Request: fold
Amino acid sequence: MTKVVLNHGAGGEAMQEFLSKHIICHFPKVKTDVPLDSMDDSAVVDGIVFTIDGHTVKPLFFPGGDLGRISVSGTVNDIAVMGGTPLALGCSTIIEEGLDTDIVDRVMSSAGRTCQECGVPIETGDTKVVEAGAVDQMFMATSAVGRRSEYLDANFAKAKEYRTVTGNWCTDSNIAPGDAIIVSGYVGDHGIALMSFREGYGFESEVQSDVAPLNMMIEKALKAGGIVTMKDSTRGGLANTLNELASKSGVDIEVDYQSIPLRDGVVNACDLLGIDPLSIGNEGKCVVSCVPEMADEVLKALRSTPEGRDASLIGYAGKGNGRVMLRTEVGGRRILEPPIGDPVPRIC
Reply:
């Protein structure tokens, strides 16, 4: 009998297969604007955008963030990348018996500050305490609801000046040959900062987690217009995100390694540990695809925000069947495979 392993929840191919075979297949199919089996970042039902996220990050506090900040940010981002405006959050907390109450206060205080930062309040919730050893200190699950962004229709109208756009939301399947691929900033920071701090490697002195709510940045990008797809690049990193987008859209994507923002500390840590920096998870970055004619405007809008100041155009989509090609530093080309899972467990 097959057993559940960490990779089944770590993003990448193993998780996609696990979800298809053991989770989603058991639920009835319902006709919605963005259905469950599309495996987008949020669902859309009757114009309402909603999502839910579980957070089991270890340790609870890490350089640049903590459980409370990641719980709010990740869930707000899932609504925003769909082209939604997040309205309110729900928060379910499971606490291990014996945990110091000052730790609970620190996590919840951080969650509250992040809510103020992004303008999305926690309006409902649930709290459970379980016996010692039943959970690792504290887990949080956050849900969110949102409405269609007031800028989304105008955004698509600009895209339609240059090509046909069939999607009504910024789903993973909207990319067409020729579209520009943009990443909103440095990738790999979160996973390396957290792993280094947890294992004592020392790279966290150079690299801090990027965890942040992106709804304000995304709103500015939608105002610029021409965007067809957005996706926050979390577990499995940029490699997993690009492969998901290419596969669901039925296009090939080619990106230039030298155009991908990577900090020296991330590259050095990955070289030392023998892992691919493009497979390391993020918690404050998104990949944006737009019609090429609007790429400069979208980049300008992203770079005008603190979260997107290091945004970069990294490549383009082309005709194909779902491959991702990477132009290397020496000018060669290789297939960028989707990771089996994120090499750093318990990062969110």
Summary: DSSP finds nine helices and 14 strands in the chain. Residues 101-118 form the longest helix (18 residues). The chain has a mean pLDDT of 94.
